[in-house]
Structures are given as C-alpha cells and as structure tokens.
Specification:
This protein is an alpha/beta fold. It is built from 16 helices and ten strands. Strands 1, 2, 3, 4, 5, 6, 7, 8, 9 and 10 form a ten-stranded mixed beta sheet that branches. Helix 7 crosses helix 8, helix 7 packs across helix 16 and helix 8 packs across helix 16. The N terminus is likely disordered.
Length: 341
C-alpha cells in the first residue's frame, strides 16, 4: 500500500488535466475506520483484479468524518469505510458522502441494508445476540425485551450508552416496538445491570467467564473469532459454560449491525470508488468478510466460514436500517433519561 498523499499535494496534482486523468485511471483514496489486519486481502485482491492502487488512511470514524468536513471540496477522500449504521448515517448527515447509481449494488445489496438515497451501502453484518452463563441461567431471555424482566435483576452486562452498538440496538427497539416501550425496556435493563456499563464486546464475554455477569450482549464476531484463533480469556475451557441465544426468533428477529461505506462527496476518483464498492459486494469479497473477520455476508447465498456457521442458523431482523438510523437522537435522549451510563 502507498502512503496517502497529503491534501496539498493532491490539490497541486489535480490542477493539471493530465495528472488528474492519470489519477482517475489508477488510484482510489480510502478513509477507513475498519481496523482489521485481515482486510489487507480485500485491498490486494482488488488491486490485482483491477490495477487500481488503494491509498489508505485509517483512523477513528468520527475523526475521519471531521477531517473530510474540514478538507471540504479539496478532500482527497474517495471512499469512507466504517462500522455501524449510526456512523454511516452520521457521515451522511455531515454531508461528506454523495448519492451514486450502481446497478451492481442495487442488485447485490438488499434495500434494507442501504441508504434510501444511495449514499451508503452495507457490505458485512454482525448479529448482536444474547450470551449467558449456562451454569447460572436455566431460562435465558429469548428476546431483547426480556432483558428487562425483573427475574434477571443484577445479572445483565452491557456496553455504555455512548457506544454505537448500544445506540443502534436501542434505535432498532424504538423502530420495532415504539418509543414508549423502548424507554421502559431501557429502564428495565438499567435496573438489571450487574455492574455499570464498561468495556467492549469482548469484555462482556469475559464477564461471563469471570462470573461478574450472568447475561451479556455482544456481536457474534467477537465470539466466533475465539473459535478460529486464540483470544486471551476465551479458550475452549473458558467458553465451555457460555451459551447463546439468537433473540426474537418468533418476533422481529436478531438485530444486525452493519459494516459499510459510501463514496465521498468530493471524490476525485469517483468511478474507481464505485468500482471498489461494487467489488466489496462480489462473492469473493463477501466470502472474505466471513472467513477473514468472522462476519456475516451482506449478499444472500454467500457461504459462511466454519467459525461463523458454528453458531447456527437464525432469522435476522430485516428492518430497514436507514429507518432505524433516524431514531438515534431519540435513543440518546432515552439513555439520558433512564440513567444508562
């Protein structure tokens, strides 16, 4: 991978017609908050297949969005790649993405996994499910709403309200059950906390191993990764007493988080950017999302890696994530009102 050119250098190069044409033929500038080493294969395979070089900047999603805003029309960014619907919607609201037309993406990516204005598209998914300690919990909750049941008082661990996964889950509860029910649910979950919200998804699983938590919520790929590679604290022996539930199988289905991206508002290599997004929807790339990072493909019919398939079949929530994203502000208001730290 080449080091991404600075904004000033790109501005100078873009000032000449010949250099601009050359840049458009062979490069694409990617701003990514995906921090997985396994994504290197995605980039190298795309370059090998197309001859298009990927220049990459990696960083925190909010920082990258702010950077694109500050760079404005002079931004070298062609693509923003990030995790979770809330961040994709944040980028759209910030005006750093543009609408595109792609027959390939329209055919490959379900309407529920893309922005209504075609500014972002989902390329991989993670189910956010319930994990529990089989030695302490005989009757685990079978849906998200049941996490608020008083029988689970002092048993539930979850991430903080500032985490995007928490925000998007509550936004989905609002979409599926209404604001009043969502607030009652959030209050009930807070009442059932075993500890103040803390840590990442792996920490929620480790809380089950340590006995601090009896019930936790995590994205599937954190657990599936431990089935494929060594994860400290989640050895086979550590996992022996961890069970899992794909929630709401008789209702809305399991909540899904997205990893996705869109074309930058001022992309200097727009056509190459679209080609890259189309490549991410290909069978080859979709299989690698599963094999390389234990995620679920966004394209139906693509096979799962053994570590992902080991969790079993389930019915996902097919709610329109573009609609879910509209509830983020309401979700944050509810978190504040119920004291979800």
């Amino acid at each position: 991978m080449r080091v991404l050119w600075t904004t000033s250098t790109l501005a100078i190069v873009a000032s000449t017609v010949l250099s601009t044409a050359a840049m458009a033929q062979g490069e694409v500038n990617l701003y990514s908050s995906r921090h997985y080493d396994t994504d290197e294969r995605l980039y190298s395979d795309f370059t090998e297949a197309t001859g298009i070089t990927i220049n990459r900047i990696e960083g925190n999603a909010d920082e990258l969005i702010a950077r694109m805003q500050a760079e404005g029309a002079n931004s070298p960014a062609d693509i923003l790649l990030t995790v979770d619907t809330s961040r994709l919607e944040r980028a759209k609201a910030a005006g750093v993405l543009q609408s595109i037309d792609s027959d390939v993406l329209e055919k490959r990516i379900a309407d529920s996994l893309q922005d209504d204005d075609n500014q972002w598209f989902g390329f991989s998914q993670r189910a956010r499910i319930i994990f529990y300690d089989k030695t302490d919990v005989e009757n685990p909750p079978l849906d998200y709403i049941s996490l608020a049941d008083p029988q689970y008082k002092g048993m539930v661990c979850h991430r903080s309200s500032t985490n995007v996964y928490s925000q998007t889950l509550l936004s989905a509860v609002i979409e599926n059950h209404g604001e009043e029910a969502a607030k009652a649910w959030a209050q009930g979950v807070v009442d059932n906390f075993a500890r103040d919200p803390q840590g990442g998804d792996t920490d929620q699983l480790l809380g089950l191993v340590s006995g601090e938590c009896d019930i936790s919520i995590s994205n599937t790929y954190y657990f599936s990764r431990a089935l494929r590679v060594d994860v400290e604290g989640l050895s086979e022996a550590d996992r022996a007493n961890i069970g899992w539930v794909f929630p709401a199988q008789n209702a809305e289905g399991a909540h899904m988080n997205l990893s996705g991206g869109g074309v930058a508002a001022h992309a200097p290599n727009r056509e190459n950017a679209i080609k890259f997004l189309e490549y991410l929807s290909s069978d080859q790339a979709q299989q690698y999302f599963s094999a390389g990072n234990d995620e679920y493909p966004a394209v139906p019919g693509v096979g799962l890696s053994p570590s992902v398939a080991a969790l079993g079949m389930f019915r996902p929530d097919d709610v329109d994530l573009s609609e879910v994203a509209q509830n983020l502000a309401t979700a944050q208001k509810i978190f504040n009102e119920v004291g979800w730290k």
